[in-house]
Design goal:
With about 425 residues, the chain is an alpha/beta fold. The chain is about 50% helix and about 10% strand. The strands form 3 sheets. The protein has a 4-stranded parallel β-sheet with strand order 1-6-3-2. It is elongated, with a radius of gyration of 31 Å. It starts with 6 loop residues before the first helix and ends in a 19-residue tail after the last strand. The relative contact order is 0.08.
Amino acid sequence: MKAKDNPVFQAALQFAKSFPEGAPEAATYGYVKLLSMEESQRKVLLPEGSEEEVELARKYFEKHDLDPELIRSGLLLLVPLLSEADREAAAQGFAKCLDQDKATDSMDILALATSQSKLPLKELFKKGNTIQTVFDFQNSLKSAREEAAKKAGENAKEGGDITKQSGVDTQEMWKAFDEERAREKKKRQQEAEEAARKKSEIHRRDLGDLSKQYRDLNEALLEVVKGQDAAVSKFVRGYNQGELLKQTERGNHPKTYFFFFGPPGVGKTLLAETAAEALSLPHKTFNMSEYSGPQSHEDLIGISQIYKNATEGTLVKFVRENSECLLIFDEVEKAHLNVIRQFLQILGAGRVHNVFRDEETSFQDATIIFTSNVGRELYEDRSVNLTTMPERCWWMPSSGKRTPTGSRRCRRRSVPASHPAIP
């Protein structure tokens, strides 16, 4: 049976109308679409007795460890980037081999399509790769085309049709691309090992070190932050508890995190920044009024590299480079809800997805401080110093009847870490 008489092959081509006519990649894509159909649907489309041909196609993908779903998602993104000369050469070579009956059954046809393609199909779409791999190679292919055009003396305008530019050896390009990926992976492993080593050294601190740190931090803060002795004491105690717990148990949450509530100008941000300097921790302050838009969270966690001029998020990049750090989110109530959702994930799981690098960024060694001016009505009564209130207090509801903490009609008053001390 010749390829042109193979009903499965002809049916597969009907699914690849978006590809250039005669492109060998169309056969690969068409077979993938055919295999993704329910068996009952294929029986309607194909003549009786075609099951063996379908099974041969399935075996081809399994034999070469190819990911059909990845082919279906990514192949159409790459073919338009091939130069016209490459596409024509591939189509002519594929047609010539089919005419010479070098491929008859579906397995042979797929093998021929793979060999005649100008794309590294076996390497690019093997199992274990992701769509991000395809996106990265797509960007490399675009850059290579533009570079080839420049070398050929063509003045391609930005956004112009690069498919008509001079050809590039995609097989050699994939080899360089894969080597670069391997180097990047090795670099990340080394960074992870170095981070693990530093963490191990940090965890070996003894109680004597923590005790000295407690005293030094307390003295440094009291020297700079005036009139906030109670707030300083609570912060120092909380920070050192976090250090101690980090050595005994590792949870899926940041090392410590604090909420500083109080009216403007009482020293919330000053306390946080002074603590970072006293602890010799790399720190970064985020003014949350700058993150009030619906897309503001992208500035923190980044955007995918599939987009032009994509960059890594400022937050995840800082934490990736400084795993043990102090983060200050100033006036957090001004942030957009999408930003708040990212904070909830960080506090709950101790990590957030770095969209640009397509990996998780851990916050387990980070200290986080949120400051806020909300609840000003709590501070209007200047006769009460909220920082010195007991952990368990009474709340006077609108009915006028006091209710203990824990009751449905009672709200627990959060102890504000930086309310001005009342003499």
